[in-house]
């Protein structure tokens, strides 16, 4: 158990790791601390205050933006997760080259620069005649959320004994009952994780949203960007902290509800 | 008694990308209420055949019928056939009782019927009071019983078992062999059992089919296959045997006389159909049919190299005088000390020999 004495461990890695963690989290800590700053000046600390939270939460335009963000995230999550689940199940049943090709195509959007996807979607919407608004944002978010939702579901499915589905069919379950009673509950932790990733990705997206959002479809990140252009105020800090809190809360909730069924299936695999 | 429940006729199957077919023109009749075993080395097609009966995949050609009705493209959920999977495939998110009741539930049986049938099945597989547990809380042997109960609960016409005992240790496997045989007799359901373990197959089956490379090599009762193997593969795969190269010296009636190896030993054989005088052949003799005889020229003799006392019998290895080896299972009452290193004569009755063309 004495990991410090591990023979393959290079000296100084602990220091490097600590520095890396610092680099990752210092900006966020600074942001959170400054959101409680009493001063108008973002970077000069004058005293503790909840003033900026009150101002942020009393800002109606911003509340609309939060509402838009949640609507878009919820809709895109449901659509993307459903699509990703169907894709995972479908691909699992096909084999060989088809599988490799489709999996590659599904994952590719993760590697495409976001700006390319944004421009492409904008062009497509204009070409097809989709009016830019909340709907176009939901469609766009669904598109880029599918790969995020897909991978956790697929890895969950890969760990599942294919004989379980066969056993259900063998015991007289038609395809849809087999899905509802066997595959869906056993995939639930993966679907949860996929939905969570999709939700967080949608909630935080700026680039694609900025391109495809029409008037009245301002989401929170787009709104915050707008605020920054007129000078960074501690209100932005307060808002960002709230967004961070919301994300962490969602992760915590899903992580808790997701762990129990996952452990059960893994225990069963020992036979 | 000769009532066929599963008729397999000329079934072939080749998996995409495979060079060899998994099944090449298999025909079999499985009889009602029998314990039928598909036996063969891995890759012989036995599991493929089982999966085709269950409906997981369709034959490329040929027909499978159940109770006189062609199964054709009927999906697994519409076949009154249940399977015990090699991995058990118990539903991990359901209790033991929910697992066992799943089939009946899917068949739309009322809740009360399902509950009483589950209780009955738990008693049948001796897991009373375990209904509320999760599969992960059970031992391998118990999981095996749940898988059996789950497959038996809907009272299928045929129960398919895909190497269900392979994950169990030897002691548990022996127990389950007896248990399976008991369940089959008690329920009166036709069992089709797949295994690569010939001992298991001999112990449990009413009849068995030995398969190799997608072809059925022989079908018959365990006694029939053991005593009268139809070919060298079956003789080698089932039980132990001595295999000696021989030459046919003389044919008379059904039998003849054969010279073993390069020795001067000439042994009478009761049945030697299809072999002409002068033909090369392989003689097959089971070790327990060999007795001690006179060590004289013209008779089979050799030097005993090892003799292992095993209580009921004495297992003797000898180097034959004309080359080749002999393995005999003699009565345990014979003293090993007097045999080792000595030139010993061996004999066997003419009807103990099976002859195959070399």
TrEMBL record, chain A:
UniProt GO BP: transmembrane transport
Subcellular localization(s) per the UniProt record: Cell inner membrane; Cell membrane
Major site of localization recorded for this protein: membrane
UniProt xrefs under Pfam families: BPD_transp_1
Ranges in coiled-coil conformation: none
Residue stretches making up the ABC transmembrane type-1 domain: 66-254
GO CC field: plasma membrane
UniProt KW keywords: Cell inner membrane, Cell membrane, Membrane, Transmembrane, Transmembrane helix, Transport
UniProt keyword Cell inner membrane, yes or no: yes
Topology class, membrane: Multi-pass membrane protein
Segments crossing the lipid bilayer: 12-36, 70-92, 104-126, 132-151, 184-201, 207-226, 238-255
Family, per entry: Belongs to the binding-protein-dependent transport system permease family. CysTW subfamily.
PANTHER family named in the record: PUTRESCINE TRANSPORT SYSTEM PERMEASE PROTEIN POTI, SPERMIDINE_PUTRESCINE TRANSPORT SYSTEM PERMEASE PROTEIN POTC
UniProt function note: Required for the activity of the bacterial periplasmic transport system of putrescine and spermidine.
Official protein name in the record: Spermidine/putrescine transport system permease protein PotC
Organism, as annotated: Bosea psychrotolerans
TrEMBL record, chain B:
Domain of life according to the entry: Bacteria
Upper taxonomic lineage: Bacteria, Pseudomonadati, Pseudomonadota, Alphaproteobacteria, Hyphomicrobiales
Coiled coil segments of this chain: none
MF terms in GO: ABC-type polyamine transporter activity; ATP binding; ATP hydrolysis activity
Annotated NCBIfam families: potA
Designated name of the protein: Spermidine/putrescine import ATP-binding protein PotA
Function statement: Part of the ABC transporter complex PotABCD involved in spermidine/putrescine import. Responsible for energy coupling to the transport system.
Annotated Pfam families: ABC_tran, TOBE_2
GO cellular component annotations of the record: ATP-binding cassette (ABC) transporter complex
Quaternary structure note: The complex is composed of two ATP-binding proteins (PotA), two transmembrane proteins (PotB and PotC) and a solute-binding protein (PotD).
A single GO BP: putrescine transport
Keywords: ATP-binding, Cell membrane, Membrane, Nucleotide-binding, Translocase, Transport
ABC transporter domain boundaries: 6-238
InterPro entries: AAA+_ATPase, ABC_SmlMolc_Importer, ABC_transporter-like_ATP-bd, ABC_transporter-like_CS, Mo/tungstate-bd_C_term_dom, P-loop_NTPase, PotA-like, Transp-assoc_OB_typ2
Recorded family membership: Belongs to the ABC transporter superfamily. Spermidine/putrescine importer (TC 3.A.1.11.1) family.
EC number, as in UniProt: 7.6.2.11
Swiss-Prot/TrEMBL catalytic activity: ATP + H2O + polyamine-[polyamine-binding protein]Side 1 = ADP + phosphate + polyamineSide 2 + [polyamine-binding protein]Side 1
